[in-house]
């Protein structure tokens, strides 16, 4: 089924090239159907790239989805044109009286900062607090997962001696959980971060459960037992070359960065990396939309 997106969103043409069924607002208006309303708080610096990555996954579901993009008004983006934000994004003030079926909070490359040092931390707190009563289920990605666990459950983060960086194999440790229905016992996910969650605190919390983890990647997926909050520490939405782009950006800035682990064929950065996690990413988003959003949300929001 299609995803409903704003007219003229740049990601539209890219998705159509990949045969992802998208429907602009003009056409969707003529259909008598109540799509799932998903709001995406996009904290990534390259917002247009992240839009395409997430819309690609949402568009693989059999459910019709209406997408709204959100950004923090208390932060000035240096990598996305102001006109793009003005055209396609809303702030919490615009949506605070509305209800949504699902919320996605992306990562952000700010793991080295204490949460309280983040310029938009108070606004993010407000958004996460609003989501408890206005959203059926929230999916938190990478830094978003660390922030969500800290805000809702006081789970602290741990700073890593070096960047956790590469594509790691993970195992399902709670196969009975619907979020991992259909998953292989082992699957790959990209990671890129300088901080991690405190596993001991997470495992001891009575309202949370660890669903997937690995020796190298650590805890990958955890969730509240009521399904309201799903935390993913990796980047299943990444394209094949996203880690490569990050690697090149770090080197251009003079940052000493190791090659991403298990990423380049034969560990040789002269070879194009292969996309080996897309099927898992599609299944994760489909399961979340189906079991944690669609089957839990009321028809009349």
TrEMBL record:
Annotated protein name in UniProt: Homoserine O-acetyltransferase
Predominant location: cytoplasm
Reaction(s) catalysed (UniProt annotation): L-homoserine + acetyl-CoA = O-acetyl-L-homoserine + CoA
Enzyme class label: transferase
UniProt record similarity statement: Belongs to the MetA family.
Record EC number: 2.3.1.31
List of catalytic residues: 142, 235, 237
Site (Important for substrate specificity): 192
Origin: domain of life: Bacteria
Swiss-Prot/TrEMBL keywords: Acyltransferase, Amino-acid biosynthesis, Cytoplasm, Methionine biosynthesis, Transferase
InterPro entries linked: Class_I_gatase-like (IPR029062), HST_MetA (IPR005697), MetA_family (IPR033752)
The keyword Acyltransferase appears for this protein: yes
Pathway recorded for this protein: Amino-acid biosynthesis; L-methionine biosynthesis via de novo pathway; O-acetyl-L-homoserine from L-homoserine: step 1/1
Location of the protein in the cell: Cytoplasm
Pfam families according to UniProt: HTS
Site (Important for acyl-CoA specificity) location in chain: 111
Residues where substrate binds: 163, 192, 249
UniProt-recorded Gene Ontology molecular function terms: homoserine O-succinyltransferase activity
Functional summary from the UniProt entry: Transfers an acetyl group from acetyl-CoA to L-homoserine, forming acetyl-L-homoserine.
CDD domains, sorted: GATase1_HTS
Organism of this sequence: Aquibacillus albus
């Amino acid at each position: 089924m299609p995803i409903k997106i704003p007219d003229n969103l740049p990601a539209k043409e890219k998705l159509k090239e990949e045969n992802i069924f998208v429907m602009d607002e003009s056409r969707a208006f003529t259909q008598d159907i109540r799509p799932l309303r998903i709001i995406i708080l996009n904290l990534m610096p390259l917002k247009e790239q992240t839009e395409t990555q997430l819309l690609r996954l949402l568009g693989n579901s059999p459910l019709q989805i209406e997408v709204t993009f959100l950004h923090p008004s208390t932060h000035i983006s240096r990598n996305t044109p102001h006109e793009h934000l003005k055209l396609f994004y809303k702030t919490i003030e615009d949506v605070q009286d509305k209800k949504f079926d699902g919320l996605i909070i992306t990562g952000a490359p700010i793991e080295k900062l204490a949460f309280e040092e983040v310029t938009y931390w108070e606004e993010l707190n407000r958004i996460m607090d609003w989501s408890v009563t206005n959203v059926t289920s929230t999916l938190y990605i990478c830094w978003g997962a660390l922030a969500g666990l800290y805000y809702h459950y006081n789970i602290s983060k741990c700073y890593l001696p070096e960047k956790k960086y590469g594509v790691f194999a993970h195992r399902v440790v709670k196969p009975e959980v619907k979020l991992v229905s259909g998953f292989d016992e082992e699957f790959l996910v990209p990671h890129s971060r300088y901080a991690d969650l405190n596993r001991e605190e997470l495992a001891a919390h009575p309202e949370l459960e660890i669903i997937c983890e690995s020796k190298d990647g650590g805890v990958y997926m955890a969730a509240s037992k009521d399904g309201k909050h799903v935390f993913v520490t990796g980047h299943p939405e990444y394209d094949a070359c996203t880690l490569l782009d990050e690697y090149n950006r770090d080197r251009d800035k003079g940052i000493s960065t190791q090659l991403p682990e298990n990423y380049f064929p034969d560990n040789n950065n002269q070879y194009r990396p292969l996309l080996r996690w897309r099927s898992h990413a599609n299944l994760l988003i489909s399961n979340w939309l189906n079991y944690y959003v669609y089957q839990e949300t009321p028809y009349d929001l």
